[in-house]
Amino acid sequence: MRVAIYHSDKIFHRWPESYVGELAQKLLDRGHRVFIVKDDSPKETNEKVISECDCFVGAPGEYYAIAKEKGLRVIGLLGATKKGEGVVSSIACAGCMDVMDNLMDCMWHDDLCMAEITPNDVLGVLCE
Predict the structure, then answer these.
(1) How far apart are CA 18 and CA 63, in angstroms?
(2) What range defines the domain where residue 104 resides?
(3) Residue 100: what pLDDT?
(4) Cross-strand bridge partners of residue 37
(5) What angle do the packed helices 62-69 and 43-51 form, to 10 degrees?
(6) What CA–CA distance (Å, rounded) separates 87 from 49?
(7) What's the gap between Cα 53 and its chain centre?
(8) How many CA atoms lie within 13 A of 25 on its CB side?
(9) What is the average pLDDT across 116-125?
(10) Which residues touch 42 (CB under 8 Å, ≥6 apart)?
């Protein structure tokens, strides 16, 4: 399986870099091919990489939508939002984007909700 992992640098969408690396290594150890999609790469390059994969892992947003549109299996990292398919953060305030008028009202400002989603959580859903 070819898996695109989106590593965003956008607030409320950042999954810890160490988690991206850990998930990638676990997938590689199982014989899968892994591609990292980052915000600092050209959009056209990211779209091409995504379109050549079987599965997309990342926070809901532009690349999540592109992956769905292209028919990939999508596993959303659902921390600040619960809208989508994937793994929902276990923290009590998960989904804050869905109910808050001002996202700056988040008391954590450090993507704690995303850090609560572990690579093993994602691997469990990915390997179902």
Answers:
(1) 21
(2) 2-126
(3) 72
(4) 6
(5) 40
(6) 22
(7) 15
(8) 7
(9) 94
(10) none
Bridge partners of 58, per DSSP, are 76
The tokens describing 48, both together, are: 């091409």
Q: How confident is the model at residue 94 (pLDDT cuts 50, 70, 90)?
A: confident
Q: Are 26 and 121 in contact (CB under 8 A)?
A: no
Residue carrying the six token digits 């676990």: 26
Residue among 68, 15, 75 nearest 39 (CA): 15
* Averaged pLDDT score across all residues of the chain: 89
- pLDDT beyond 90 at 73: yes
Q: What is the pTM of this model?
A: 0.89
Quote the number of domains for the chain. Answer: 1
CATH number at residue 72: 3.40.50
What does the DSSP assignment read for the chain?
-EEEEEE--STTTPPPHHHHHHHHHHHHHTT-EEEEEETTS-HHHHHHHHHT-SEEEE-SSHHHHHHHHTT-EEEEEESS---SSEEE--STTTTGGGT-S-GGG-S--S-HHHHTS-HHHHHHHHT-
